[in-house]
UniProtKB/TrEMBL annotation:
The keyword Hydrolase applies. This is Inosine/uridine-preferring nucleoside hydrolase domain-containing protein. Keywords: Glycosidase, Hydrolase. Pfam families: IU_nuc_hydro. It comes from Phycomyces blakesleeanus (strain ATCC 8743b / DSM 1359 / FGSC 10004 / NBRC 33097 / NRRL 1555).
Amino acid sequence: MAPIITKKETVIIDTDPGIDDALAIIMSLLSPELDVRAITLTHGNASLDMIKRNAVTILNVVAEQRAFLGLPAQVPILAIGCASPITVGQPCVTATHFHGRDGLGEIYENNLYQAPPDWESQLLHAAKEVTKESFHAAQSAFQTTPRDAADEILFHLKNAPPLTITICAVGPLSNIALAYQRDPVTFGRAKRIMVMGGAINVPGNVTPSAEFNFGADPQAADIIMGTTKGFQHSPEGYSSRLALINDGKVAPSHVVVVPLDAADDGTVSKQDYEKYIVPLAKTTPVATFCNSFLIWTFDISSKLYGIDTLSVFDAYTILGTMDMMFDKGDKQGHEHYDAFWKYEYIDLRVESTGLYTQGMSCYDRRPHPSMSWPGIPNNVQVMLRGNGRRFNHFFLNRVFDAGIII
Ligand SMILES: [Ca+2]
């Protein structure tokens, strides 16, 4: 039975599609719990040019799927952001060894799937402001914008009631940090920043110590962790944030990190793929598209890591966002996510200059720390464990209509 939705979470998804990003975007846009106001693009899994082509392709697939399902169009704004990290001297790193040169398992050059022939012109902005009226009136798969990603994020935060928009950041944090640097007061109006990133008590996945998103722009990640100074997850903390916003001051951010520790068990197995996804090929737009790149992911996972599962980090983070949607940061009504996620509040930092440890998630592991680092500590809500089996069922049901009884 479809869920009865009484409240929607307004989200902006900052992303670098990317295989698990593609699955996260599709899941988000097929989820009635979410109002995806904007999708903002960052460098990451592949170069920004590849990311742009993938985003246009994904959004067109979703538009076709919604039409196929008889759902009304959902037309997010698509904004283009950083082509490189903000970390000084940091070269652009990609994860094309896993995601393919195009970021989607090399589907285009192998003629497995084609981007819309006019994908580049779809991205061109007609030099007119997006209005509330035109937003829902559009017929295309997405709206363009004259703003870059950071300004688009700030635009929505400024024009929505305070503490109502959640930012889901599932790529390197360049755009998010840039938004903070441009206007920290407006940035503080975000309800929550959900971040897929970091490796807390487990090894990294791009270096011995760094997870990809933190490693690809460590300074940006450290800046975002630093926005939590003074954050308190309490009724008083919530009121204090609102008061600061109303006074035009910088309010501390509620940053929730979903690191590899929690995200690694959110998987789809090759067996799931063969049972639930392969038979749907060429029957629905989403399944046709996903089948074009999923075989690559299982082949590459087997070759590189000797495993037959795909960790869908970014979609798992979107599920975390939905679990937390009723939480206002005031400790009222968050029993739902307490049931599925184990977390701690940590003074989390990200190493941005280390010779061997760039991108490492740092926190004080001493049993009785007095002061970890000088100054006010960060206060990041870090998910240390999720519920991968529940994610697996939710994801397969939501995206591929698998009919698994949860
Ligand atoms: Ca990503």
